[in-house]
Structures are given as structure tokens and as C-alpha cells.
């Protein structure tokens, strides 16, 4: 199994490979298989740059936020992940409400940690017919922290 992990890290170092481990990652830990290279790779850490998300901002803080919806819908959810007024993109800030200091603009790096999707988690989605939000547990049979 160690050889397979090394192969994936070397040749398939992308978040798509994380789907291979959704059911068997806890088993790898139980059997004592070394997963350090896997955790240090891009398999569970997806860095992204979306046109719909701002690439610069005047807020220098590092933020950690949850996202419990479909990964492929992330593009449309900047305001869901960052709803506060302090995270309004620079081009949408009103001159009278927020004083923007252009000398202090920072480049933003977004990354998504996919490791929580291995254990049990709450999944939210919108029913396309009723437009109601539905929440349910996924991976109930897998307990990563056990």
C-alpha cells in the first residue's frame, strides 16, 4: 500500500485523488501505514483561484472557514463562506462606508482542506424542485477520530 501512496503523491498529486481514500483512510491509519507524504501533498489540500472570488483585499488576517456543500459549487459561494461586511471585495466597497487604504492591499491565497470529508460530516444541498435546503449526514459508517 505504501507504494501506491507514493505513486499517487508523485504522479496524481491532485484533489481528485482524495476520492480514492474516502472509505479506506481510517483503515490505513489503523494498520500503521505511513500517510505523512499523502497529508503533505495536494491530495487533501486543494489550492484554488476562482475568478468569482477576490484575489486581493485590505484585510491581512488569515481566516479558517467551513464549507459543507458540494466542492464543485464552491465557485458561487464566496458570500456564503465570507458573509461579513469586512470581507466585501474591494471593487464592491462603497467609498463612503469603508475607508480603503490602497497602500495596504494583500494577495489572497485560498486553499481547501478535504480531510474532513473523510469522516462523518453534515452535507447541505438545495433541493432543485422545492428550493429547500436539505441537510444529512454523509459517511456515517466512517469515524476518522475513533
- Rounded mean pLDDT is 84
Point out poorly predicted stretches.
Answer: none
Number of DSSP helical runs: 4
The assigned structural class equals: alpha+beta
At a glance:
The protein has 146 residues and is of the alpha+beta class.
Polypeptide structure, described:
It contains four helices and six strands; from the N terminus they run αααββαββββ. With 146 residues, the chain is of the alpha+beta class. Strands 1-4 form a two-stranded antiparallel ribbon. The mean pLDDT is 84.
Descriptive key words:
146 residues; alpha+beta; two-stranded antiparallel sheet; two-stranded antiparallel ribbon; 4 helices; 17% helix; globular
Q: What are the SSEs and their pairings?
A:
Layout: H1 2-11, H2 25-30, H3 36-40, E1 45-48, E2 56-57, H4 78-81, E3 106-107, E4 110-113, E5 121-126, E6 133-138
Antiparallel strand pairs: 1-4, 2-3, 5-6
Amino acid at each position: 500500500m505504501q507504494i501506491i501512496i507514493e505513486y499517487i503523491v508523485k504522479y496524481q498529486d491532485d484533489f481528485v485523488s482524495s476520492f480514492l481514500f474516502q472509505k479506506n483512510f481510517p483503515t490505513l491509519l489503523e494498520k500503521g501505514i505511513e500517510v505523512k507524504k499523502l497529508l503533505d501533498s495536494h491530495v487533501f489540500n486543494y489550492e484554488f483561484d476562482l475568478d468569482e472570488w477576490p484575489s486581493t483585499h485590505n484585510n491581512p488576517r488569515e481566516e479558517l472557514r467551513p464549507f459543507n456543500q458540494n466542492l464543485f459549487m464552491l465557485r458561487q459561494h464566496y458570500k456564503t463562506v465570507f458573509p461579513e461586511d469586512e470581507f466585501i471585495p474591494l471593487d464592491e466597497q462603497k467609498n463612503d462606508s469603508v475607508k480603503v487604504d490602497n497602500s495596504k492591499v494583500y494577495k489572497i491565497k485560498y486553499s481547501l482542506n478535504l480531510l474532513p470529508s473523510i469522516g462523518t460530516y453534515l452535507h447541505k444541498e438545495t433541493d432543485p424542485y422545492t428550493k429547500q435546503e436539505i441537510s444529512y449526514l454523509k459517511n456515517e459508517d466512517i469515524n476518522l477520530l475513533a
